[in-house]
Amino acid sequence: MSKELGGLKIAISGKGGVGKTTLSSLLAHLYASEGKTVLAVDADPDANLGLALGFSQESLAKVTTISRDRDLIKERTGAEPGTMGQYFSLNPEVDDIPEKYVVQEHGIKLMVLGGVEQGGGGCICPESTLIKHLLRHLVLYRDETLIVDMEAGLEHLGRGTSSGVDVFIVVVEPGQRSIQTAHNVVKLAQDLGIEKVYAVVNKCQPGLEQKVTEALAPIPLLGIIPYRPELVLSDLESENVFFQGVLKEEILKIKENLESLARK
């Protein structure tokens, strides 16, 4: 099924700590600054995209993590969350959820999906089913610019959802574990039929660019973000990187590259 509406749909993944949430927040702010309607979706169980976006504590206090909303899951699927062996709807109603579960600041809408916190995360359960159908709806039938901050795996994506994603970005840092994770994610993405998978290198020390590029091959690069000590301080002080303008040039280049490749 092809996407019917709207702006670019971007999914961002990577090993924990590599900076995928920072990249997600920077792209969200950049698109919002251009007047685009942006929906930023936190699909990582360790949800902190709202902090990276610079949302106030008042706004974050209003956020409901959908995977933990037991009443919603039971209402839409007909099954008690956290239990196995029940009959439940495999096609839950999700169209109205985006309007009820977003908070908004800086021209960006934020929704937190969360993760399925139980053994056998790949199993079919009410929580997983609701999240997958909701994400599919966001990708295929909404007209916002969509940026999804994902975990390293692709648990929330299915084939129907993947066909609507314009660009899948894997964020890596210099190091074999991070690079190997990127190759694993690319293979999973290709198995789901995602064709446009690209890498962004983060925290790259001067002189390592060529080695990292060679280690990532054949994954195409959208850009390289240099290591900046001030970003560590920004994280500690919960300051928004976009408003400081620290990485403006690098993020603009990444955005230009992904847009030129996404629509080909």
Describe this structure in words.
This protein has 12 helices and 8 strands. With 264 residues, the protein is of the alpha/beta class. Strands 3-4-2-5-1-6-7-8 form an 8-stranded mixed sheet, with helices on both faces. It has helices at residues 20-33, 49-53, 57-60, 70-77, 97-100, 126-141, 159-162, 176-191, 209-216, 229-236, 241-244, 248-262; strands spanning 9-13, 38-43, 103-105, 108-112, 145-150, 167-172, 197-204, 221-226. The radius of gyration is 18 Å and the shape is globular. Helix 4 crosses helix 6 (126-141).
Notable characteristics:
alpha/beta; 264 residues; eight-stranded mixed sheet; 40% helix
Provide a short characterization of the protein structure.
The protein has 12 helices and 8 strands.
Topology of this structure?
Blueprint (H helix, E strand, L loop, with lengths): L8 E5 L6 H14 L4 E6 L5 H5 L3 H4 L9 H8 L19 H4 L2 E3 L2 E5 L13 H16 L3 E6 L8 H4 L4 E6 L3 H16 L5 E8 L4 H8 L4 E6 L2 H8 L4 H4 L3 H15 L2
Parallel strand pairs: 1-5, 1-6, 2-4, 2-5, 6-7, 7-8
Antiparallel strand pairs: 3-4
What is the tally of beta strands?
8
Q: Choose one word for the global shape.
A: globular
| Helix content class | 40-55%
Oligomer: single chain
Strand content: 15-25%
Adjacency order of strands in the biggest sheet: 3-4-2-5-1-6-7-8
- Kindly provide the radius of gyration, computed on alpha-carbon positions and rounded to a whole number of angstroms: 18 Å
Average pLDDT score: 84
Low-confidence stretches: 118-122
What's the SSE pattern? EHEHHHHEEHEHEHEHEHHH
Distance between the termini: 18 Å
> SS-based structural class?
alpha/beta
With helices defined by DSSP (H or I, 4 residues minimum), what is the helix count? Answer: 12
Reported for the largest beta sheet, the result is: 8 strands, mixed
